[in-house]
Amino acid sequence: MSEYLSDAQIAKAKLAGVSGSFCLAKWKQVSLHLTTGHTNSCYHPPLHRIPTEPLAENPSALHNTAHKKERRAEMMAGVKCTECNYCWNIEKNGDLSDRHYRSGEPWAMEAFDDIVANPEADVNPSYVEVNFSHSCNLKCSYCSPQFSSTWERESRDHGAYPTQKPHNDPEYFTGDRKPIPKREANPYRKAFWRWWPDLYKDLKHFRMTGGEPLMDPNTFRVFDYVLENPKPDLHLNVTSNFSVEQQLFEKYLDYVKRITKLPGTVEHFMQFVSLDTWGAQAEYIRHGLDFDVAINRVERFINEVPERSSLTFIITMSNLNIIGLKRLLEHILYLRKTYTKTYQRVWFDTPLLYTPDWQSMQILPPAYEVCLTDCIEFMEENLHNSHGFKDYEVLKMKRDLAWMKAGTDDIERKRADFYRFFREHDRRRNTNFLETFPEMTEFWSTCEYNANR
To answer: What is the value of pTM for the model shown?
Structure first.
């Protein structure tokens, strides 16, 4: 049994000793969307607004919000709060959920006794994901104006997509949902940098997301701080689409080389690369992506940043990515065999896409289950402790397949919205769904029928 899987099972037993819904991530993990002033604990619950009033005296209120404290109290009492349905739904099938995996990791489990003893206290999270800006050069099909400036421009110029409930309607992204423009004062970003010196001392994992972090000056401000204040136990992580302009990529790569070459600066640098599938289909899903540039930069990163670093593919599991997923897994296996010398350099994760619901795997006919079955068989044929696939990676893929097979309600509406969205996508962006996904012609016709009936 792998150490990762074993840690999750140990965590399951320890968490159950407190309550049937206890999760350390509600205390020790946070996602901060400073561009709109929203937060959640891990990335599964819906975002909620960060009140500005407490921030003047307590910048840690970016994380320790009244909303989270209410949910923490519910967890201590064994209440399964609805915002955590992602994990409850997985646990219904008897599977380990991210509640177990996250709580079982050292950055969370080391705080177990302190949290149980004083669950109401403000805490500094040890795992922080921060979105400083929504500046981004891509318009991923499942993204929104809150997280992409190019999506924001498209919505402003062309309006909502004609799904049953208008999608990415610019009128929705107003008020506290509207990203704060760079030229305006941002109280959340200001509070973050006031909190940063105190937060930094407790950090184990710090991950910058976006938007596109390589386009954000705050990313390089963090890098400068780390270079001036080495932290040997820090895992520093950045998520990128690896498709930014060449000059910016070179600047970024130079920083990462300096951080990883200097002994004691960080424990490890993890490069997350958002890439869902292979070739033209990947470019369709993540509009604006240059697949060849991104995949070449992946190998360049592995080659040029050999010290204290790894790379993880973030593969968002949707009804479009699974067609070419096996080809991406084959490339991951090639990278592992080529670059695994003393430790694992290449990883991947497969989070499930829930929204928008018309891009969920659950609206596909049963015939598409073979896509994941083939992937699982390929992974099982190539299990290996160092350069092959891991047992828990296979387990997660099986979990994704089980979730896909579970199906969904309101399927005709969701299929109709699939057609309405991607028909408009093709019109606005000069793309062609059927040329890119010829394997899905029959499904496209079914969705068209549902849209026109």
So the answer is: 0.91
